[in-house]
Amino acid sequence: MANGGPVVSRVQDPEVVDLLQTLIRNRCVNDGTAESGQEAASAGVIAGLARDAGADVETYEPVPGRVSVVARLEGSDSSAPSLCYLAHTDVVPVNESNWSRDPFGGELVDGEVWGRGAVDMLNLTSSMSLAFTRLVRSGFAPRGTLVLAAVADEEALGSHGAGWLTEHAREAVGADYVITESGGIPLQMPGGKLLPVPIGEKGSCWCRLRIRGEAGHASQPLRTDNALVTAAEVVRRLAEFRPVAEIHETWRRFVEAMGMPDEITRALLDPSEIEGLLEVLPDLGVARQAHACTHTTVAPTILHGGTKINVIPDTVELDLDIRTMPGWTEVDVRRLIEEALGDLADKVEITEAHDDPATSSSTETPLWDAMSRLAGRFHPDGKVVPFLMVGATDARFFRRQGAQAYGFGMFSNNLTFEQFARMFHGDDERIDVESLEWSAAMFEQLARDFLG
After folding, report:
1. Which of 186, 254, 382, 399 could form a disulfide with 359, with the two C-beta atoms 3.0–4.6 Å apart?
2. What is the DSSP string of 78-118?
3. Contact (CB, 8 A) for 177 and 279
4. What is the pLDDT at residue 34?
5. Could you tell me which of 52, 69, 39 has the C-alpha nearest to residue 150?
């Protein structure tokens, strides 16, 4: 087994590298529209591998081109726990001019595979798919059922992927336990090496606001009620608003495992002190992550307004990406917006609100124990710790149906937590070959250990 040394160009497992390169080159870009994504290309590749190995495979296409694959290796004991490897094949859009290399070239350079999706999450999609295929090829006969679900549309709302499957094909895709993205990235802290594993994720409540004004001729702007000017103040107030920090048990366990000096640990766990600490932390990435883990966040992201250059706009629409802490509801979000806007609240209407509450899983499970044991084979000096995912994954659909779901992979010491976070939806996305090989080996061994 590799020991986390320097990245080299030698590839020990070309099959997993080839699969990742193929998925990157398929350009399954999901911009949120029903016609984007076109995951059929990658779904066909994964389905073909599983069928050739002898697995039972079904494909689902709720919208033309938006294809998900579900492959099953049935267990011999219906009372044994079942496990689903949950992957997605779509990727987010990219500004190609900001990349050092072709984002859809899938190039292998100095031991790294470059391309959109290399860390989110085509690396794990490749590793999970190859692990599943190899288990079937080998004649593995588990007690519990193993499911591979490679789904469409994760990068939007999951409406054409996991959301649709859990509603319309629950028997095919359902499992007691689920593993998806994105955990196991080494994080070196004063207390030692941590391997954060998301056991839950924040909710989202995407909102659209309509700001009202009064139309007029733009040549006479004095004392006009310009909706765009009001919208600018609305954006400023929302951006500056600071909800009270919430210290939850997952955050507490993570902070205590970090082994930071006592005064920093105390501040990170005290709602009255954490704000001041985050303002002065030199590592901006860490500060942002810590803030998102402990606050409901509001990010104004899209503004639409105006009809003509010489007309004072009477209506502006503003989209907000709001990520909610556990326990928050749409009622709480509406109250937050009203509080943030103050005397402008009566000029603003919430016309849309897509509420998707937070979900979480327990660490008191046999799968958590199995992941912790297996991680020690790759990182003997590492400790698996629970973490809160501040974005959204398809795990939420499965948790709401009773599954215990985690984000887990196995990454080498060549990839740091900070690098991973920066490349997630970012530029120059790439993954080292060693991490690919580790994850493929880990997923295969985990199924053998857990399903028996």
Report:
1. 399
2. TTS--EEEEEE--B----GGG-SS-TTS--EETTEEESTTT
3. no
4. 95
5. 69
Closest by Cα among 266, 64, 58 to 148: 58
Peptide bond into 182 cis (omega under 30): yes
DSSP codes of every residue in 362-418: -S-SHHHHHHHHHHHHH-TTEEEEEEEESS--THHHHHTTT-EEEE-----TTS-HH
For residue 314, the domain's CATH number is 3.30.70.360
Alpha-carbon distance of 444 to 50, in angstroms, equals: 14
> What's the rounded Cα separation, in Å, for the pair 137 and 135?
5
Give the type of residue at 283: D
Residues 68 and 114 in one domain: yes
Q: pLDDT value at position 1?
A: 38
Indicate the residue among 356, 378, 403 that finishes a domain. Answer: 356
Instruction: Name the burial class of residue 111, with classes exposed (0-12), middle (13-18) and buried (19+) by CB atoms within 10 angstroms of its CB.
Output: middle
Type of residue numbered 440: A
- Band of residue 29 on the pLDDT scale cut at 50, 70, 90: very high
Domains identified in the chain, total number: 2
**In this structure, is residue 178 part of a structural domain?**
yes
Residue 349's H or E segment, with its range, is: strand 348-356
Q: Which two tokens stand for residue 189?
A: 């802290």
Q: Where are the beta strands (DSSP E) in 169-202?
A: 177-180, 187-189, 192-201
Confidence (pTM): 0.91
Q: Positive or negative CA dihedral for 210, 211, 213, 215?
A: negative
How far is residue 158's CA from residue 406's CA, in Å, rounded to a whole number?
A: 17
Residues 157 and 40 in one domain: yes
Mean pLDDT of the region 413-435: 89
Asked if residue 365 and residue 382 are part of one domain, the reply reads yes
Q: What positions carry a catalytic annotation?
A: 90, 154
Q: Which tens digits make up the pLDDT trace of 316-333?
A: 999 999 999 999 999 999
- Measured in residues, the chain has a length of 452
In a domain, 164, yes or no: yes
Q: Is 351 found in the same domain as 266?
A: yes
| Letter string b/e over residues 98-108, b meaning 16 or more CB atoms within 10 A of that residue's CB | ebeeebbbbeb
Same domain, 223 and 341: yes
